[in-house]
Amino acid sequence: RRPEASVELRLEAGPDLLAETRAIREANGVFTLGFALESEDGVANASRKLEAKGMDLVALNQIGPDTGFDSETNRVTLIDASGVLDELPLMSKSDVAERLLDRLEERIG
Hints:
The strands form 2 sheets. A 4-stranded mixed β-sheet has the order 1-2-4-5, sandwiched between helices. The chain has helices spanning 17-27, 42-52, 93-108, and strands at 33-38, 57-62, 73-74, 76-80, 85-87, 91-92. By secondary structure, it is an alpha+beta fold. The N and C termini lie far apart (58 Å). The protein is globular and about 60 Å long. Helices cover 35% and strands 22% of the residues. The longest helix is centred in the last third of the chain and has 16 residues, at 93-108.
């Protein structure tokens, strides 16, 4: 049996790419979809992120018992820049991806 080895990792925050590229995206009319993983006040927090970072659409992933990293399913709420909410039902992550691609195709054609 191998002895237990320990590894120490030191993490540093990276740059906020959405904030740093906002002016360029807006100047060039780039449609931007972002994601927000929230444990509480999901719609309010995701809406603030959408506005602060100049996104056109944000996909809110609300952490819950049947959603999240360790789950095969997700419940996503899409929020657009005008504040319209589209609450998707609980579905597989691949189905969520298909719905996001459909929404992108509608917007950027």
